[in-house]
Amino acid sequence: MASGTALIYDEEMTSHKLLWNDPICDIEVPERLSFSYEQLKCYHLVERCVCVPAREGSEEEILLVHSSEHLEVAKSTQTMNEEELKRVSGNYDAFFFHPSTYRCARIAVGAGLQLVDSVMSGKVCNGMALVRPPGHHSQRNAANGFCLFNNVAIAAEYAKRKYGLQRILIVDWDVHHGQGTQYIFEEDPSVLYFSWHRYEHQEFWPSLKESDYDAVGLGRGKGSNINLPWNKVGMGNSDYLAAFFHVLLPVAFEFDPELVLVSSGYDSGIGDPEGQMNATPDVFAHLTHFLMQLANGKLCVILEGGYHLKSLSESVCMTVKTLLGDPVPQITGEMAPCLSAIESIQNVRAAHKPYWKCLMYEDTSFLQNLSTKSHLLEKVNTNPSTEHESKITNKDEMVKVERFLELHMKNILFPVPPIKTAATIESEASAHLLPLSVRVVKEMDMNEVKALVSAFYADLVKEDETLLSLGSMLAVLDKILTKQVCNGIAESPTASVSVAVALRHSVRFGFQRVLCIFVGDMEIIPNTEDGRILMIHICEKQQSEKTNSKHYISLNWKEVRFTFIRSLVYVRMHRFEENFSSCYFSSSRRQSHSVKRVRRR
Length: 601
Ligand SMILES: NCCCNCCCCCS
Ligand SMILES: [Zn+2]
Prior knowledge:
It comes from Apteryx mantelli. By secondary structure, the protein is of the alpha/beta class.
């Protein structure tokens, strides 16, 4: 397994800049790159990466995706004067040429290919390329939306041909729809393209019908194009995580890509004038971490948009920090996605139901009554600020975001004292083996256990020797319930009884939602305490007949691949699931006994 993270950056790409007044393009500035690179240095992340040089993409490589006409037009601009540059730029929607644009765009392409080579050769495990001009809006025969050559699309085509890859996932978390990438791969089943984007029912640029959730791909490519439109601004971390848990990750695990490319735009982050979203930089650590679980970690992150310099650079740092293997920050704040996000997620899951096994039991009955639903949405709609207002607030808005990010990132990077772990160990002698952050706790003594069990758990604990095994679990659990530590580890010869007692003890202590994941067979199936416990039981023998609780899911571990379970756990852990009726299936043909129908709440 390769290790190490590549970082590709070349100052040359800062020479492309706008020479005339254009309020649409004036946000795509060279400082986007230099500011991000400086921030990486400031967090000492550059020195931890393998610095790989960029190179110019060759004409042949550019022709993997673009027409020779497009290449020739781009090439011809190198010797143009400002007036000619302005005229040629006017042929495209939201693009500007500078005499150095062609060279910068070729370096941007080459940087992406260097990254693919570094990962595919095993020189590194993953990496990031800081490039401009971006690429995901550019099309076979046109520049568009600040993009001249489609860096990520060329990287995907290049990887397919050079390394014979058959399954490449492109995740586009930029706030704009990468229509260029969609057009290039919509008939190609070997490239799965996922994009979320500000859409507002086709109001937001590029305002295309084919950016909506029902554009699933064409011909053999049906099912390989996933569009998740955001129909409101202000989407936050919980909406982005729900999109990963309930759309991207289940499909991505099923697709099982050999390489993952990210069209990594950070204009989906807080403070960005284009996106107007609320997700904080730390969410990109989580998104990156999830994608690192695919393709044996072969992950190439290539910069797209991002126009709030502070928000952009913090998000770039969160991404690189995670690629390096640093632990991701705790997810904080609102956990439930908003109604509009839920509707978009439901729509895209329904649209892809015919193409993905993980969606084959999707309940799409809601589609019939969607009209009532959207009028519901209108009610909760905060009236959108007019263009004029948002422009005025933009200035002091940007400053406010700067302040917010200063404080927020301090918390993220220097959280409260490191999470403490409690453990009980047999002998004091082995105490020194435990890391300093682990707190050794004494087992609960027998009388205490007896008193506690006889009061509430006598039905669970039959024999005395079981009593003995509860001491260490209860001692650790007590420290967690009283918030003296965050987590703990305890061994027990009677695991299922200990778990049953621990679950009932936690609920009796006042916890309202307890997730239990039990691997192995259980003598007794604890009851799920009227919904306050969600139990995922990964076992040899199916035991679902013993309980009909919808909060008990048993999975036959022989049948369901671990990665699928991992995505299932993510999905279940996210409370959002309660609003969904969904089904999970085993990966084998004999689905009947491992399909669990979870009814709509
Ligand atoms: N009213 C026209 C707005 C054009 N906006 C282009 C944004 C390109 C972003 C690239 S990530
Ligand atoms: Zn963008």
